[in-house]
Design a protein that fits this description.
With about 120 residues, the protein is mainly beta. The chain has a single domain, classed as Macroglobulin (MG2) domain (Immunoglobulin-like, Sandwich). About 15% of the residues lie in helices and about 40% in strands. The chain contains 2 helices and 9 strands; from the N terminus they run ααβββββββββ. The strands form 2 sheets. The chain has a 5-stranded antiparallel sheet with strand order 1-2-3-4-7, with no helix packed on it. A 4-stranded antiparallel sheet has the order 6-5-8-9, with no helix packed on it. A hairpin with a 4-residue loop joins strand 5 and strand 6. The longest helix is centred in the first third of the chain and has 12 residues. The radius of gyration is 14 Å and the shape is globular.
């Protein structure tokens, strides 16, 4: 990938457009106006605060049929940074961000092996 194409792709992510690698993921639910996501398997809020500096929090609810729900964080270039499994017994998860550098990240919400939604997280200090 040339520098020009890379910068162009990064610009789309920063402006809120889907990166080509994520644009082809199927949608299995609906996004609310605040960016939250819900379908028959999961209800989850967008990470907040966003932009975040020290931590990011998600509120969620899983249905009984969900075996493997998780949030996976990626750099805008697609490198996996972190993965957090969601417990059926909790409804809130707060993740520390001290290992994240300042920048823009993407996080994917998945359940039962299906990627359900991808959102943007900005980390600042």
């Amino acid at each position: 990938m040339t520098i020009k194409r890379l910068l162009f792709a990064m610009m789309f992510v920063v402006l809120g457009f889907a990166h080509s690698a994520y644009a082809q993921q199927p949608s299995f639910g609906k996004a609310n106006t605040d960016g939250a996501f819900e379908n028959a398997q999961i209800q989850i809020s967008s990470g907040f605060p966003n932009p975040a500096s020290q931590h990011v929090t998600f509120h969620y609810r899983l249905t009984s049929g969900v075996q493997d729900a998780k949030i996976t964080f990626f750099t805008v270039l697609g490198s996996k940074i972190s993965e957090v499994k969601l417990s059926a017994y909790d409804e809130t998860i707060t993740l520390p961000l001290e290992s994240f550098k300042v920048g823009v990240y993407l996080y994917t919400i998945s359940a039962n092996g299906q990627n359900l939604a991808t959102r943007k997280l900005v980390v600042k200090r």
